[in-house]
Amino acid sequence: MSDALNPSDGSDPQVPRKGPLNFLIGALTSGVLAWLALGLSRRVLAHYASHPPHYSSAIAQNIATAMKTLMVGMCFLATFSFAFIGLGLLLVFVRSLVVAKPGSAA
Predict the structure, then answer these.
(1) Domain extents for the chain?
(2) FRET label pair with 71: which of 5, 11, 65, 85, CA 20 to 30 Å apart?
C-alpha cells in the first residue's frame, strides 16, 4: 500500500462527525428549495394552462405537447425530490437527538 493512504506514524486524520445541527440546516435548506421549486412548478403549470400550443402541423403540436409535459414534470420532480430529502434529513435530525441506550443494537 502507499504511504499516503496508510501513514506509518499512526496519526489518522479524523473526519469530523456530522451533528444534529448539520442535519437541521440541511433539512431547512432542502425545505426552502422544495418550496421554491413548488412555486416554480405552479407558475410553469399556470403558464402552459393559459398559453396552450396551437400549431397547424400535427408533428409540431406533438413536439410542443411533449416539451410542455417534460417541463412541468421536471419542475414537479424537483419539488418532490427536495421535499423528500428534507423529510429524510428531518427524521435523521430527530433520530440524532435520541440517545441510544448502551448495549442496544445500532
Answers:
(1) 20-97
(2) 85
Half-sphere exposure for 6 (CA within 13 Å, toward CB) = 2
pLDDT band at 68 (very low <50, low <70, confident <90, very high): very high
Mean pLDDT of 79-98: 94
Half-sphere exposure of 61 (CA within 13 A, CB side): 6
Q: Cα-Cα-Cα-Cα dihedral of 57, 60, 65, 69, to 10°?
A: 170
Cell of 53: 400550443
How far is it, in rounded angstroms, from Cα 50 to Cα 34?
A: 24
Over residues 10-31, mean pLDDT: 84
Cα–Cα distance for residue pair 69/75, rounded to 1 Å: 10
